[in-house]
Design brief:
Blueprint: E1 10-13, E2 16-17, E3 27-31, E4 34-39, H1 41-44, E5 53-56, E6 61-64, E7 66-71, H2 73-81, E8 83-84, H3 91-104, E9 111-116, H4 129-136, E10 141-145, E11 151-153, H5 155-158, H6 178-190, H7 194-210, E12 213-220, H8 227-239, E13 244-249, H9 254-259, E14 264-265, H10 299-312, E15 315-320, H11 323-340, H12 342-348, E16 351-354, H13 360-369, E17 372-375, H14 378-383, H15 389-394, H16 396-400, H17 405-411, E18 415-417, H18 428-436, H19 447-454, H20 456-460, E19 478-482, E20 486-487, H21 493-499, E21 509-510, E22 520-526, E23 529-533
Parallel strand pairs: 1-5, 2-6, 7-12, 8-9, 9-10, 12-13, 14-15, 15-16, 16-17, 17-18
Antiparallel strand pairs: 1-3, 3-4, 6-19, 10-11, 19-22, 20-21, 22-23
Helix pairs in contact: 2-7, 3-4, 7-8, 10-11, 11-12, 11-13, 18-19
């Protein structure tokens, strides 16, 4: 799970240290992989002679390293090193990129790409199978939609999956969903060799470290990746310096999850799909489709899994986006509480990934049952607003209710922020900005609350209350940033004005107003060991 702690003692001084232990701290001592002291510049003189290294911060900001609470590491790396269609502005441009990628990779057994979003294209449709066959010269190709819940493929890839046409979710010429999608994805990723897979994982972890991310929660599972992929990533994280990797395996076979080294039988254990692919499960039909999506698990399934995990001492967790899926989770957890008791369920800190369509009743249930909401604010930045995909799928009224972070915080629901990379990029400061400047104003939270959800929140989600902040005794996972003036930003101006008063003792954070330059990571440290240093500019 972790990089071995450094044995060196280091004094960092002449900067801004973001610490609840001292809101005006300018210095910090790290010893044996943990924070040993934080305080003022004057007091730092007493430590200078007894350390192995003194780091002059030259005014830089030091914060806890971020935790990205929902990542698909190998897929992220493959997107970084392979065909990325997130920037394609039309179907024609996407086909051009596919053709170029095929020409540049003549040796690949299966061509892999990610990130198309036809909802943002003028044609409003993905490439057809015939168009992809022509662009690739008849080679196997797998192209996942941006939400990774559907894909378009070539005929040659279908030929590698016998019986795929008989599986639910198959379309003769359109995107594949459900079981058909899972089958072709398994075939496509199965063609990735171990060396290519490991290099993709390294690339993803390097990118994470370069962005000040000290921990990632890998969300694997039999419908998402492979056991070799999952265990290989955990082994890589243990053997090489880099971000910590906490593994979740989305499997109802909890002993299998435990045997693979997972912290929980959780993550993307699908109760439903995604809104963009019309597979999120709704109470009422989509605004642009005459159905309510797809249900993968019932409330009874959820209850059985929560009971089994609670009794086994594992975290349970579910992917639930649509309101009907969230209801199934809430009803299932309530039934589990009836069997094993509220205290045991709360102590297990079970998780719900995404949790986008929430009613006041479901929010109250999350708080009652101690469920962590593992959420992705970049989804709102990408798909929210009156003209966004959410409004297309759900209509304006339902779309405005999505991702109600302020209501979750008011109810006391623990939040852990992540990216769901490669669905949205690894981008912690951008994620905080998206939560603080939510497209629906009543759902906005303060920058400080969002920052906590992306640092301490991720640690709390794995059962650690002693980490994710720079206080004595905490793991020395931190990042050093070049940034402009530190301020306090909150949706309520009165709160912001009071928080900037020195009497409030509120440490500042970078200005994340849309359009403002985001902080630049200079160094990332995990367990006192440097895992990233920005090259000289």
């Amino acid at each position: 799970m972790s990089t071995p702690p450094s044995t060196r003692t280091v004094l960092l001084r002449r900067g801004e240290v973001h610490s609840p232990a001292d809101p005006f701290a300018t210095a910090m001592v790290v010893e044996a992989g943990h924070v040993a002291w934080v305080g003022s510049e004057g007091a730092a003189d007493a430590f200078a002679d007894g350390v192995d290294e003194v780091v002059d911060l030259d005014g830089a900001l030091v914060t806890p390293a971020f935790t990205d609470a929902h990542v698909h590491t190998t897929s992220t790396g493959l997107a970084l090193t392979g065909l990325d269609l997130t920037g394609a502005r039309s179907r024609a441009e996407a086909l051009t990129l596919v053709r170029q990628h095929a020409d540049d990779h003549p040796e690949d057994r299966v061509l892999l790409g990610h990130g198309w979003d036809a909802a943002r294209w003028p044609e409003d449709r993905p490439p057809s199978r015939g168009e992809l066959d022509e662009a690739t010269g008849g080679r196997p190709l797998y192209l996942s939609r941006i939400d990774v819940h559907s894909a378009v493929v070539t005929t040659a890839l279908l030929d590698l999956v016998p019986g795929v046409a008989d599986r639910p979710g198959f379309s003769p010429d359109g995107p594949l969903t459900r079981d058909a999608h899972h089958a072709v994805r398994a075939a496509a990723l199965g063609a990735v060799g171990s060396r290519q897979r490991t290099e993709a994982q390294r690339a993803a972890l390097r990118r994470a470290a370069s962005l000040g991310i000290g921990s990632v929660h890998e969300c694997g599972g039999p419908d998402i990746s492979s056991e070799d992929d999952f265990t290989g990533l955990l082994d890589l994280a243990r053997s090489e310096p880099g971000p910590r990797v906490v593994g979740y395996w989305a499997d109802r076979d909890i002993e299998r999850a435990r045997g693979l080294g997972a912290l929980g039988a959780a993550g993307d254990l699908f109760v439903d799909g995604a809104l963009g692919s019309h597979t999120a499960c709704l109470h009422e039909p989509y605004a642009d489709a005459a159905h309510t999506g797809t249900a993968y698990l019932s409330a009874e399934d959820v209850a059985a899994h929560v009971v089994a995990c609670t009794e086994a001492g594992l975290q349970a967790g579910f992917h639930a986006i649509g309101d009907a899926a969230v209801t199934a989770v809430v009803d299932g957890v309530r039934a589990a509480v009836d069997k094993v008791g509220l205290a045991r369920v709360r102590a297990a800190r079970h998780r719900v990934e995404h949790a986008e369509m929430l009613s006041p009743e479901s929010i109250a249930a999350f708080a009652e049952f101690g469920l962590t909401a593992s959420v992705q604010p970049a989804f709102d930045a990408l798909w929210g607003g009156a003209e966004g995909m959410y409004a297309d799928r759900l209509g304006a009224e339902r779309a405005r209710a999505l991702n109600p972070y302020a209501a979750l915080l008011r109810a006391g629901v623990p939040l852990a922020f992540g990216s769901d990379s490669p669905v949205t990029p690894l981008d912690p400061w951008g994620t905080i900005r998206a939560a603080a400047f939510h497209r629906t104003p009543e759902h906005r939270v303060s920058v400080r609350a969002a920052f906590t959800a992306h640092t301490r929140g991720g640690w709390r989600a794995v059962g650690r209350d002693d980490a994710g902040m720079l206080v004595p005794g905490a793991p020395a996972d931190y990042a050093v940033w070049r940034t402009d003036e530190l301020i306090v930003q909150a949706p309520d101006d009165r709160v912001a004005r009071w928080s900037t008063d020195p009497r409030s003792g509120t440490p500042g954070l970078p200005d994340l107003t849309p359009g403002a330059q985001l902080p630049v990571c200079l160094r990332t440290v995990v367990s006192g060991q440097t895992v990233f240093v920005r090259p000289e500019e």
